[in-house]
């Protein structure tokens, strides 16, 4: 199941470094099991998934190292900011992702956390292969060249 469905969605956290650091091979959408204070805090938009990753553990997917700040109005009922959070997907999809991660150099990277049109929190997960330094430079050159091409075409018209 691919994640690009469009529709009305509010992005709560975005991992902009992921496309720079990883070669994205496939993208999936997963639900995320959250507590009430985590949902309230996510809606505030101060969360960070730059250092986050997902891994298969015991037949389920977990999201590790995602930072969702404490909800200030929750006092003693608050959540841990970097606790592992369960990702909700079909068993077959979890098996496919776990097999991909076992291959050399693959990792599960969260691209963004967003709320869909029904108000449910979702995670856009990608299977990625880490880029080496020369690959990063090459993709940066390519991006600069495309930008320059756009400028030249605009000036010509």
TrEMBL record:
Query: Which Gene3D superfamilies does this UniProt record tie to the protein?
Result: 2.40.280.10
Locate the region Disordered. 126-157
Task: Please give an example of a GO cellular component term from this record.
Answer: cytosol
> What broad class describes the main subcellular location of this protein?
cytoplasm
Q: Which GO terms describe its molecular function?
A: RNA binding
Its GO biological process terms?
Answer: trans-translation; trans-translation-dependent protein tagging
Keyword set, alphabetical order = Cytoplasm, RNA-binding
Q: Where in the cell is it found?
A: Cytoplasm
Lineage, top-rank taxon, reads Bacteria
Basic and acidic residues composition bias: residue spans = 135-157
PANTHER family this protein is in? SSRA-BINDING PROTEIN (PTHR30308:SF2), TMRNA-BINDING COMPONENT OF TRANS-TRANSLATION TAGGING COMPLEX (PTHR30308)
* Function per UniProt: Required for rescue of stalled ribosomes mediated by trans-translation. Binds to transfer-messenger RNA (tmRNA), required for stable association of tmRNA with ribosomes. tmRNA and SmpB together mimic tRNA shape, replacing the anticodon stem-loop with SmpB. tmRNA is encoded by the ssrA gene; the 2 termini fold to resemble tRNA(Ala) and it encodes a 'tag peptide', a short internal open reading frame. During trans-translation Ala-aminoacylated tmRNA acts like a tRNA, entering the A-site of stalled ribosomes, displacing the stalled mRNA.
Q: What is this protein called?
A: SsrA-binding protein
Underlying gene? smpB
